[in-house]
Amino acid sequence: MRALLTIATMVLGAGVAQGQMPEQAAWAPVTPKAVLAAAVAEVIRPNVLQLDEASGGLDRAMEALCAMPSADNLAIAADQFGQVVRAYGAIAFLRLGPLLEDNRADRLLFWPDRRSIGLKQVQAILATEDASATELASLQGKSVAVQGLGALEFVLFGTGAEALSAEEGAFRCRYGQTITANIAAMAGELTHHWYRPDGIASHLQTPQPDYSDYRTETEALEALVGLVSHGLEALRDKHLLAFMARDNAAARPKLAVFWRSDLTMAYARANIEGMRKLVAASGVARAVSEKQQGLENTIDFEFRNAIRALDLIALPIAAAVADEKQAAALSYLVLVTGSLQSIIGEQLSAALGLSVGFSALDGD
After folding, report:
1. Mean predicted confidence (pLDDT) in 313-330
2. What is the CA radius of gyration of the chain?
3. What's the chain's average pLDDT?
C-alpha cells in the first residue's frame, strides 16, 4: 500500500512539475453531429489505415525473411510485428461494425487463452508441419487461435523461433507468412468498410430512422461512449488484472498478452492512447451543458495519469510484477482505468443523456 501511495504521489507530482495540471479552457460546446464526424475522420479512419499500412509492412518483412533467412531479417520482422501490435492496440476497443463482423476481432487476436488451447494448436501445426496452415484459404478456415497476432507471436518469439534465421525454419516461416497475409487481408477489409460510401462511417456520422445500426444521434453517441467505457474495462479486467498479483495469489506474467515479445505494456499504452484520442479529438466531453464542462478536464487529467503510470513500467512484464515500484505502478494503472471507466461510462454518459448499456464483458 505504501508503494502504491508513493506511485500516486509521483504521478500527481509529475503533472504539477511539468505544468500539465488541467486548466479550464474557454467554454465552446460542440454538437453531437460534430462529435460523430470528428470521431470518424480524425481518429477511427486514420487509426484503421495505420493498421492497414503496418500489417502490409509486416507481410513484406515476413516474405523477405522466408526468402532470405537471417538474423537481420528476423529482427526486422520482429520490429514490424511490434508496429502491428501497437497499431492494433489503438483500435482494439472499436468493437463495432467491421471489427466484429466475420469474427475479425478474435481472428486478429484470440485473447485471453486461459487454457492455452490456442498455444497447443499452434504448437501442433509447427510440430506436424501441417501444410494446410501455409495456404491462406485453409488457414482462414481453421481455429481463430492459429491465424492472428497471438499465433504469430509464438512463431516469431516462442520456443524454436531462432530457427527462422536459417533454412531449418522454412516451414515455420511459411506458416508465419501465411498468418501475416491473413492479418493484412483483415486490415484491408477494415479499411474498406470504414471508407466505403454508405458504410458504417456514414451510418455513425449521419444516423437515419431506417438504419438497422444507428437510427438516431443518441444511439450513435451511446455507441461511441460505450466503446471507451467498455474498452477501459476490457483493458483492466482482461489484460491487467489477469496477470497481476491479487487476493493473496501470486502474479502470473505468462498470462499477459504479448509477454513473449515484451509488448504487453506497449499494447496497453496504444490502447489507452487510442481511447484518449477518441475522447479528445471527437470533443464528446464538450457536448455537455456548460455547468458540466469540467468533465473534459477531469477525463483528460485521468488519461494523463494513466500515461504517467505506464511511463514508470519499464521492465519486461515478468520483472515488472516482481519489482515493488513497478508492481505499484501497475496497481495504480488499474485504479486509474477504473476511475476513467466510471467517469466516462457513468458521469459523461449521464451528462449527455445517454445509456451506455451493459458491458461487453458481461457473461464472459
Report:
1. 97
2. 21
3. 92
With contact defined as beta carbons under 8 Å apart, do 326 and 315 qualify?
yes
CA-based nearest residue to 85, from 104, 109, 66, 61: 109
Residue 226, pLDDT above cutoff 50: yes
CATH 3.30.70.360, applies to 36-204: no
Is 90 exceeded by the pLDDT of residue 5? no
* pLDDT, tens digit, 9 for 90 and up, residues 245-268: 988 899 999 999 999 999 999 999
- CB of 35 within 8 A of CB of 282? yes
Task: State the Cα–Cα distance between residues 64 and 56, nearest whole angstrom.
Answer: 12
Long-range contacts of the stretch 205-214 (C-beta < 8 A, 24+): 205/33, 205/36, 205/37, 205/40, 206/33, 206/36, 213/97
Grid coordinates of 117? 488451447
* Alpha helix ranges (H) inside the chain: 2-17, 32-38, 45-67, 71-89, 104-108, 117-128, 136-140, 149-157, 170-195, 200-205, 217-234, 264-282, 294-311, 317-320, 324-342, 349-351
Residue 95 sits at φ, ψ, to 5 deg, of -85, 75
Cβ(207)–Cβ(219) below 8 Å: yes
Does this model's pTM top 0.90? My answer is yes
> What distances in angstroms separate CA 299 from CA 5, 264, 275, 306, 338, one per listed residue?
21, 24, 11, 11, 12
